[in-house]
Amino acid sequence: MRIAHVVSYFQPEFGYEEYYSAREQAALGHEVHVVTSDRIFPFRNVEKMLSDIGSPFRDRKRPVGEEKMEGFIVHRLRTSHELLYDMIVYKDVEEKLAEIKPDVVHAHNLWTWGTRCASRAKDKLGYRLVMDEHGYSTTYDRSRTFKNFLLDKEYRLFRAPVARRSLKEADEVVAICEETDDFLKSFYHFHKAHLIPLGIDHRKFSFRIKARERAREELGIGPDEFLLITAGRLDRAKRLEHFIGSVNVMKRDDVTLLVVGQGDEDYLRKLRKDSGPGVRFLGFKRSDELADLYCAADIGLWGKASITIREAMGCRLPLVLFDEPNMKDLLKWDNGVYVKQDTSAIARTISELLDDPHRRKEMGKRGRKAVEKELSVEVEAKKLLSLYP
């Protein structure tokens, strides 16, 4: 099968679904192409992120043209302009699809320029069109701020009309989590999406005892000490103040919390100010470094659903998650516990788990098994392929 993924921004150095899907589908014997712009996503502090991972690039721009990569071909097209932070227009998408002659086009996100181009060319070029959606609201964190008020209006005025048109033209639509599926139903009144969870690189994110020992030694964590971790995009939606407060309340000299990632600097400044000596902020880490940190840790803490939770599961890390609908499915394998947003209750739950190594070990094993059976990039790629014919 000849498959073309159309995506606005493609940054394989940071992973993401479109890279993993293309890689895994190529490994399964298909001819795979990625049609994208000559930019990577406009992450905040992108220059530092690229430097931290040792990238040869120092800005967002990438050379126009073709590049062979891990069994598939990336076609980078020249950018015309960018609007409203991440609405990018790039040239000759339809012409490139006509050149590739795909059997199926997988367009990532409903409202993007590439998706509209793929929709326009569908009947003329005669391919099957599959779209996915990752969003779960009109704003990212849904907090009641003036900024989010403006983002909501912008989404409704500019992005939603394009998404509604795309939904009418797609042969199949994929939601990457229950929250996204609920958003499609409630906001767009679309009830035909296939729920296919994002997979993680189960080969990279796996438990290795040597990685655990090395990372703990580098961090100065002794064999009788405990390491907690949270990771991902760090903003107010993650509500990390509850976890940091719980570490402060515990007052245990043998417990350290690692906060890994970048995000809202104002929020991070507040978290640092409110943190005691048992909390360390490590900033952005490469995926291989993050995998080592998961191996080193004893418990993972998250306040909102994130792909990083599944990566931690791949490394056999037991979880403590907020008791919310958007994370219900993440603990259905008895691989962790839910907690209320109560600092003292969180502290008690963490302490109980730290004092029960057998329970933690069994939770970690069940989480890893779930990744292998349901949440790996290989499983996701196969599920997507079943929609393509």
Structure description:
The structure is a single chain. The protein is of the alpha/beta class. It has 2 domains: 2-196, 3-Layer(aba) Sandwich (Rossmann fold), CATH 3.40.50; 209-375, 3-Layer(aba) Sandwich (Rossmann fold). Helix content is 42%, strand content 20%. The protein contains 14 helices and 16 strands. It has helices spanning 17-27, 46-52, 93-100, 113-125, 146-169, 178-188, 209-219, 241-250, 265-274, 287-296, 307-314, 343-354, 357-375, 377-387, and strands at 2-6, 31-37, 65-69, 72-77, 79-83, 87-90, 104-108, 128-133, 172-175, 194-195, 226-231, 255-260, 279-283, 299-302, 319-322, 336-339. The strands form 3 sheets. An 8-stranded mixed beta sheet has the order 3-4-2-1-7-8-9-10, sandwiched between helices. Helix 11 (307-314) links the parallel strand 14 and strand 15. Helix 1 (17-27) packs across helix 14 (377-387), helix 3 crosses helix 4 (113-125) and helix 13 (357-375) runs parallel beside helix 14. The relative contact order is 0.12. The model has no long low-confidence stretch (mean pLDDT 94).
